[in-house]
């Protein structure tokens, strides 16, 4: 079987299973098995596959038709221009969350000495901020210290692997990891806290997972009908763990961003505002202590 034949099969079966992007899914699966990009696949469509390669691609196609996301099949996902390791222990990074990274980067100054990525999951938010700062040419000595906090040890293990993958051994020395339910086990304070907490209403979170996507419910379920159950505890804890003038920047749903902003104001945050994502939807709520 050649690449064209198996790609045609993959697109047909993945599309029939309900994917909105069967061509992309097929190319990512084939590219992962062959360690090649989409351009190479296009120009080598008549190349013959080994039996082992065909079997691996067929196995991946079956997993995709059962609802498993491509990122969990390949074990990787691009986010903010960087490639992250992902497993079902962490959420797959979403393009909407790049709005949180953009806003956080705009808030970093020479006075920023410490950043916390709270509910860090794969570490994609904090590590993208760190990597972007390094790529901008900022001296290593001026890079803030980063703390990654998550309730899941399995998620923290993934973020550690991503830190080792994206950063050199010296850069990793500015990073620490802590297992904690929100900030209950954290004693320090920060200049910036960025967070993408669970914010989906409980009923909707469970319903989302029925399609076989296999993402961790722990990282989705906001533990209330409005999705703000965790955020109601996160906001006051964040205020207590910010330095004076410190920033909390938090991703929310477009359906509960305004209520989250009101919770921040009532807790004592000032200059509370909401940023929109690329689709024009309310996405990042932020305020200062």
Automatic annotation (TrEMBL):
It comes from the Bacteria. PROSITE patterns: N6_MTASE (PS00092). GO terms for biological process: methylation. Its EC number is 2.1.1.297. Residues 108-200 form the Methyltransferase small domain. Belongs to the protein N5-glutamine methyltransferase family. PrmC subfamily. This is Release factor glutamine methyltransferase. It comes from Treponema saccharophilum DSM 2985.
